Amino acid sequence: MVLTAVRGALGFLSRLPIGHDEAAWDAFRHTSAAFPLAGYVIGAFLAVPLLFPLPASIGAALFLVTVYGVTGINHIDGLADLGDAAVVHGAEKRRAVMKDTDVGVGALLAVSLLIAGLALAAVELVALPLGTIVAIVITAEVSAKLGMAGLAAFGSPAHEGLGSQLIEQTPRGFIIAVIVSIPAVALLWPPLVGIVTMSAGLLTTATVGQWSRSWLGGVSGDVFGAANELSRLVALHVGVVTWTLF
């Protein structure tokens, strides 16, 4: 059951060639732990381009290619939709804008800042020891996926759609997901670095969730995607800063 759920999670959260089927999707929708477990796998792939002895600019470019080559653009598309929604007034108008295929200024700004932030994070990461690079990237990815599990367990759907299908988790399932995520915290030393990195990602997701509740009336598929992108970005930067300080 768990392996099937993880396969479903990887099928939804990445472009890894693991196949897609209804059984895996259903198992994933009811297994919170599949989110962070998929985060370990995805994070390991994302760390690879940062391990080569290349100029920082080239490493950053390869990191960006790897991030969206492995995870696809569905999640960043969610961030773009939220960027457009943030610049209009009224929950109904915001939801309408998010369904619109046109790209507005809010979307362009949100995506541009994200890409710039990821590139800067990569430049910071390549200066660190190899083991620390892998640990921060994996911890950040697990944190982002654990945050998504939290949205699925505690959020309410803004409307019928992909997001509403994921919101069938339970608080008990989220506790299991938290337990599964503990090894990611232990990857970093001293332990405070891992705790702060994980917490930064979760706090980012909680902020996005609160914003979506107030501004959109609930959680949607776009909110899941935006939370994933922003949480990864914040956790990467916080991980680097915290490791450097401690």
From TrEMBL:
Q: A cellular component term (GO) from this record? A: plasma membrane
User: Which GO molecular function annotations are given, in alphabetical order?
Assistant: adenosylcobinamide-GDP ribazoletransferase activity; cobalamin 5'-phosphate synthase activity
**What processes does the entry annotate via GO biological process terms?**
cobalamin biosynthetic process
Q: Where are the transmembrane segments?
A: 37-65, 103-127, 133-154, 174-192
Q: Which reaction does it catalyse?
A: alpha-ribazole 5'-phosphate + adenosylcob(III)inamide-GDP = adenosylcob(III)alamin 5'-phosphate + GMP + H(+); alpha-ribazole + adenosylcob(III)inamide-GDP = adenosylcob(III)alamin + GMP + H(+)
Keywords per UniProt: Cell membrane, Cobalamin biosynthesis, Magnesium, Membrane, Transferase, Transmembrane, Transmembrane helix
InterPro entries assigned to the protein according to its UniProt record, in alphabetical order: CobS
EC main group: transferase
Membrane topology category:
Multi-pass membrane protein
Its domain of life reads Archaea
Give the pathway listed in the UniProt entry for this protein. Answer: Cofactor biosynthesis; adenosylcobalamin biosynthesis; adenosylcobalamin from cob(II)yrinate a,c-diamide: step 7/7
Q: What are the EC numbers?
A: 2.7.8.26
* Localization (cell): Cell membrane
Cofactor dependence is on: Mg(2+)
Task of the protein:
Joins adenosylcobinamide-GDP and alpha-ribazole to generate adenosylcobalamin (Ado-cobalamin). Also synthesizes adenosylcobalamin 5'-phosphate from adenosylcobinamide-GDP and alpha-ribazole 5'-phosphate.
> What's this protein's family per the entry?
Belongs to the CobS family.
Cite the NCBIfam families for this sequence: cobS
The name on file for this protein is: Adenosylcobinamide-GDP ribazoletransferase
